[in-house]
Each structure stands twice: as structure tokens, then as C-alpha cells.
Write a structure and sequence with these properties.
This protein is an alpha+beta fold and 228 residues long. It has seven helices and six strands, in the order αβββαβββααααα. Strand 2 and strand 3 form a beta hairpin. The termini are far apart.
């Protein structure tokens, strides 16, 4: 609704707006990071906060583990378009792997230990402006709750530049086709979001990939039109 409203407002003023993840190769991408915390509804307590600690609570620790460990196989839900993956390149503050760190903006998930317990949260940095927020938030919440339920442990915390970490176990898929294949093979995705949704979503992304393979890009024309 927000995107549609903004496009209508811009049209009235002869302007255009885009929510593409990367509309210009010479500019940084457009992010859509998701900040999240889990609260006790009755007592209004932030369940991620660990009083007097320099890390997350046990609940927050396992929620983070679900987010991080499942990120590669859920990437298609976070980055649903061919263009989404133009943002997954070095040097533009977008994560290249399923890493985490405290106040580390090069990681896929950044733990933020606020000045008060209320501000403690996780910033999921993989998502861009092109997300379907309902799907992306459902995937994040499902992954986090799965981590809590199964007491999942995250990989080691990353200090320094996470983009230089070449651990294949943490690598994110770098194309929509690769991401769809990871989602297709994910048993956890079906547990978290259900067979009907996952099967339907995969069919739509398979179609998107087929349409893209038929297209001829400007880059190809510039590169090959006279050179071959």
C-alpha cells in the first residue's frame, strides 16, 4: 500500500519512484533492512535483552541462530527478483554471506545492543527495498522462532569485514536461480511456511527466471553487437 501510494503521489508531480534493489550500476543499492525484537506481551519485556550483559539473551541467541543459519535457503523469499542480486556485490554495504556480528554493518545480521533493554534488537540486513514485506517478515519470524524451538546455535561471531569470509557454508546464493534451488531443497522452509505457499512461490520464481533467460540486456548488446 505504501509503495502504491508513493507512486501515485509521484505521478501527480511528474516524478517517478522505484523500489528496485539496484537501479543503477554506478550507485549503491536500495536497502530494506528489517529490525526485529521479540516481546513478552503481558509484561512488556524485550526477550532479546540480557540485563547487564554484552550479548543477547538465550532466547535472542537462538532466534538469531535461526535467522543466520536459514538465510541461504530462504534467500529467494528475501530477494525475489533477478535484479535483487545486483546488490550482492562487494563494496555496497550489502551482505555476501550469512554472518552475524555485534554492531557490524558488513554482516547479514547485526546485533544492536541499545543503551536500554528496550532498544536491543537484530537488524536483518539481507533484504532490499524490493521485498514483499509480508513474505520477508514472515520468513524472518518463522526462521527465528524455528531457531528458538530447536535451540539452534549460530556460527561464530564475525569481527571485522564479513565480506571477506569465504566459508562456503555461509555463502548466500548470488542469483535468483540459485536461490530458488536452495529454497526448493529446504525442508525447514516447508515446516515454517507450509507446502502450499512454498510450492506456489517457487513456481512464480521459476517463471521469472525463464522470462529473464529469454531477454537480451543492454550489456550484451554493448559487449557483443560488434565484437563477435
Amino acid at each position: 500500500l505504501f509503495k502504491t501510494t508513493l507512486k501515485q503521489i509521484c505521478a501527480r508531480h511528474d516524478l517517478s519512484v522505484t523500489f528496485m534493489a539496484k537501479w543503477n550500476e554506478d550507485l549503491p543499492g536500495s536497502s530494506g533492512h528489517i529490525h526485529q525484537s521479540l516481546w513478552d506481551a503481558g509484561e512488556q519485556i524485550n526477550l532479546f535483552a540480557a540485563a547487564g550483559s554484552d550479548t543477547l539473551s538465550e532466547t535472542g541467541h537462538h532466534y538469531l541462530a535461526g535467522l543466520v543459519n536459514l538465510a541461504p535457503e530462504l534467500t529467494a523469499l528475501y530477494s525475489p527478483f533477478v535484479n535483487s542480486y545486483k546488490r550482492y556485490v562487494p563494496g555496497v554495504w550489502a551482505p555476501l554471506n550469512a554472518s552475524w556480528g555485534i554492531e557490524n554493518r558488513t554482516c547479514g545480521s547485526r546485533v544492536i545492543l541499545g543503551p536500554t533493554d528496550h532498544a536491543t534488537r537484530i537488524e536483518f540486513r539481507q533484504t532490499a527495498a524490493d521485498i514483499n514485506p509480508y513474505i520477508a517478515m514472515a520468513a524472518c519470524l518463522g526462521a527465528g522462532l524455528y531457531g528458538i524451538a530447536k535451540k539452534v546455535e549460530p556460527p561464530a561471531m564475525t569481527s571485522g569485514d564479513a565480506t571477506s569470509d569465504n566459508d562456503p557454508a555461509l555463502a548466500l546464493p548470488l542469483t535468483l536461480e540459485a536461490a530458488v534451488e536452495r529454497l526448493r531443497g529446504s525442508e525447514v522452509a516447508r515446516v515454517v511456511l507450509g507446502d502450499d505457499f512454498i510450492d506456489h512461490f517457487i513456481r512464480t520464481r521459476d517463471w521469472e527466471c525463464r522470462e529473464y533467460r529469454k531477454s537480451v540486456s543492454d550489456w550484451e548488446l554493448r559487449r557483443y553487437f560488434e565484437a563477435v
